[in-house]
Amino acid sequence: MKNLIDTYLDEMLAEGKAEKTVATYRSALYRFAREIGKVLPEIASRDVHRWLMGLKGISTFRRHNVRCALAGFFNWCRRWEYIPVDRDIMFQVGKIKRHEVAKQWLTQAQVRLVAEEGCSKALGGFLKWKTRALIKFIGWTSVRLNEALSLRWSDIHADRGCFDYRLKGGRIDTYPIDANIVRVLREYRVHYDRWQKMAKRKGLRSPEVCAKLGYVFPARTGGKWWHAYDAMKAAGKSVGVVVHAHKIRHSVAQWYVEGGGPVEGLQIIMGHKNIATTQGYYQRHLKIKKRARKSINFNL
Questions:
Q1: Which of 65, 94, 243, 270 has the fewest CB within 10 Å, making it most exposed?
Q2: pLDDT for 280
Q3: What was the pLDDT predicted at 88?
Q4: Residue 186 belongs to a domain
């Protein structure tokens, strides 16, 4: 079964699926093949359901990803006749239950509170300024956390008034820089340079790594800042706000929709490949529906 799984995953990559999605599917399918205890022709739907019910200690979202991986793999096997079409090995992937969408959004005042007061309370030194700049940068640009952490100083083009960044899936896009983003980066650069000078005086290796890799938001060692999520979470916790980078990103979309912006503009800002993803923000937004309802002239 492992050879079939590898072939299926290779086809996913060839179709342009994101590497992280393929890695998630690989982990789920390898575990299934290892634990199911049967070869593919002998597996039935009840075996799959029994295995899924036996998964312990994983979140609802992780369980949903596992189900999607299995459903996609079985459909692929049936298409290439590795499984007979009439074989009882199909199951439906139900929609994941989400909390109220409104609870997933933050106000601008809350984001500002976390960036200013939260970072000062929970963090110190250069980490405080770095986390504050990262929160404000994501708040102004709506980029994903990994996109912000992958940004290098060489990607920022002040003369052209824009910066380049790598989107989810590997695509390269350009984002315009306005006065607010410039202010955030300039203030942060002052503290960044001070941190570099202090590290040089102490004889640390991080300045060499920073100069080589050039990340705008580097880790203490100069490499990629993998613990940014924890720093943002600590800053939010200190002021009683549950916050993470993707929540800020969703909040930016919420503010845009409330401002009456068109769906095409939001798609470009958010970097969505499929406009159906962007339309979800409008479909869930009650204010938009009420505004549209009032604009209709009924004469029944």
A1: 94
A2: 77
A3: 58
A4: yes
User: Which is it for strands 162-166 and 156-157: parallel, antiparallel or unpaired?
Assistant: antiparallel
- Name the domain boundary from 79, 95, 122: 79
13, 69: one domain: yes
* Domain match, 113 and 231 both: yes
Q: Looking at the structure, tell me whether residues 122 and 255 fall in a common domain.
A: yes
CATH code, 137: 1.10.443.10
* Judgement on whether residues 55 and 150 belong to the same structural domain of the protein: no
pLDDT of residue 237: 95
Q: Note the pLDDT tens digit of each residue in 100-136.
A: 444 568 999 999 999 999 999 999 999 999 999 999 9
Sheet containing 156-157, strands listed edge to edge, beginning at the edge strand earlier in sequence: 156-157, 162-166, 172-176
**153 and 227 both lie in a single domain:** yes
> What are the pLDDT digits (tens) for 4-51?
999 999 999 888 888 888 999 999 999 999 998 888 878 888 888 888
Question: Are residue 149 and residue 32 in the same domain, yes or no?
Answer: no
Please list the ranges in the chain whose pLDDT falls under 50.
94-102
Q: What pLDDT is attached to residue 100?
A: 42
Q: Give the range of the structural domain holding residue 25, as residue numbers without chain letter.
A: 2-79
